[in-house]
Amino acid sequence: MALEELTAYALVEKLAAGEVSSVEATEACLRRIERLEPEVAAFMTVTAEVALSQAREVDDRRARGEPVPAVAGVPIAIKDVLCTKGIRTTCSSRILENFIPPYDATAVARCREAGLPMLGKTNMDEFAMGSSTENSAFMVTRNPKALDRVPGGSSGGSAAAVAAHEAFWALGSDTGGSIRQPAALCGIVGLKPTYGRVSRFGLIAYASSLDQVGPLTKDVRDAALLLGVIAGRDPRDDTSADLPVPDYLAQLDRGVEGLRAGLPTQLLGQGIEPAVRERVLAAVDRLASLGLAVEEVQMPNIDYSLPVYYIIAPAEAASNLARYDGVRYGHRTCQPVSDIYDLFAKTRAEGFGPEVRLRIMLGTYALSAGYYDAYYLKALKVRTLIKRDFDRAFENYDVLLSPTSPTPAFRIGERAGDPLQMKLADICTIPVNLAGIPAISVPCGEVDGLPVGLQIMGRPFEEHLILRVAYAFEQSR
Amino acid sequence: MALITREEVLHVANLARLALTEDEVNRLQYELGRILEYFQQLQQLDTGDVPTTSHVLPMVNVLREDTVGESLPQSDVLANAPDQVEGFFRVPRIIEE
């Protein structure tokens, strides 16, 4: 097995034992990136010198016998939605094409402090709006498992980088499934933490009540490891929870006996491709044979998750993206303008892609006078109903199981035309963001060579439980 | 049935400060119309006395001590400016004569 094909944990062991250096691991990734990028195109920006310099520093500290963080030296890729000081951060949008943040996102800073060499910034759907990474203004990322297929989105670049072994692990963001769905489509692990578990400071905002930063990794243990690096209260994010961070590895191998799982009927219905349903139910059977008690559960309101999300997220996005006005940073129109409003209108028309403009329009409409009650307020009330369905389910079940994605990876260009078609990709993942709970996607088989993911959902701040169930499943295969 | 009129599209575009071409106005009218039609299903639900959830965590008014902390230096703040002069961001005229 090539060095870059190891898991992060296996590399941690080799680094600690002195069998390999961080520079060697980083160079292995960089060589892989150079070889595969013409096909995969996962990276917007590769930061080879930065990565090597960080790797060298870790190696030097180890050589001097200084204590280093356990994970120090394992190279990582960062979704281009997270601010990286001094390094171009674009959100795969022309409006931020040359934006260089003056600060690190907290999640990025924590990775840096942990000694993780940063390989580069990965491609995404523009401003995290999309489920295929096709909405990137710059390039198309291809699924390493099948190059004519999408890697999923919006963290498609991060998922592809990990699946192609260009990086040992990666950070992504998830607002409606953007970590979990690409993980499922690329055959890797992706975890969306509880809302508030990881700081959003420096995460370029899409929908502030839904966004979360999380890990994309080769296996479950790596996800537990990386989550531990980035989780925790941050005074610079008032929505980050003031709760201690457990050792996510500690209970990983406790098994599933004694745990109860619910299977929401609404997430196994008509919208799910039969072959996907088959793989997922087979996975559920296997978990049952390991001692997990499984039962179907009715959650009638989650059928309304899609319209609720597509009102709330665009509404919040319309507000968050108002800052891109060509005044202080980012693109400014070069066309002659009659006044400041003309400056805004032309700048934004030029800088934003079609999907972003559509969602801003949708959100603005839903919030505007005369429509606010019928759409935005209504959606917030239905969100309560959806959250209550989860609260009720979690009274009787420790975890909930479902497919991550209704289909395996679709062909590049296949869903481009219809505004609604693409969004159906998110029916299993969106309810999780609306409720703010944690969820992990773990590979559970293939359909015609294309990966399928099992989604495991948990109570708020019970990441250790979903990791434990995911680990038991993964180890049993 | 056009759920959204052309006038409404133009009004929303103005609120959102987005310049639209004629083609885009037509396409958005169609796409928004389709999506708004899809939203009608929410009207099926009785949410009379259901409270809103705008935020999932039970937190209110996160405060801190009123002490001076770190700020970005002005040079950092201006570094990405499309047009700056003497420490200001320069823009076209805002206030009418």
Relevant terms:
heterodimer, A: 477 residues, alpha/beta, Amidase signature (AS) enzymes, 3 domains, eleven-stranded mixed β-sheet, 14 helices, 11 strands, 38% helix, globular, B: 97 residues, mainly alpha, Histone, subunit A, two-stranded antiparallel sheet, 2 strands
Give structural notes:
The complex is a heterodimer of chains A (477) and B (97). With 477 residues, chain A is of the alpha/beta class. In chain A, 38% of the residues lie in helices and 13% in strands. Chain A folds into 3 domains: 3-230, Amidase signature (AS) domain (Amidase signature (AS) enzymes), CATH 3.90.1300; 260-304 and 381-475, Amidase signature (AS) domain (Amidase signature (AS) enzymes); 307-374, no CATH class. Chain A has helices at residues 8-16, 22-40, 48-63, 106-113, 156-163, 180-186, 220-230, 274-289, 305-320, 340-351, 354-367, 373-396, 430-435, 463-475; strands at residues 43-46, 76-79, 118-122, 169-174, 189-192, 212-217, 260-264, 293-297, 399-403, 439-447, 450-458. In chain A, strands 1-3-2-4-6-5-10-11-9-7-8 form an 11-stranded mixed β-sheet, with helices on both faces. In chain A, helix 2 (22-40) runs antiparallel to helix 3 (48-63) and helix 7 packs antiparallel against helix 14. The mean pLDDT of chain A is 97. Chain B has helices at residues 6-15, 22-39, 74-78; strands spanning 84-85, 88-89. In chain B, strands 1-2 form a two-stranded antiparallel sheet. In chain B, strand 1 and strand 2 (88-89) form a beta hairpin. Chain B starts with 5 loop residues before the first helix and ends in an 8-residue tail after the last strand. The model of chain B has no long low-confidence stretch (mean pLDDT 92).
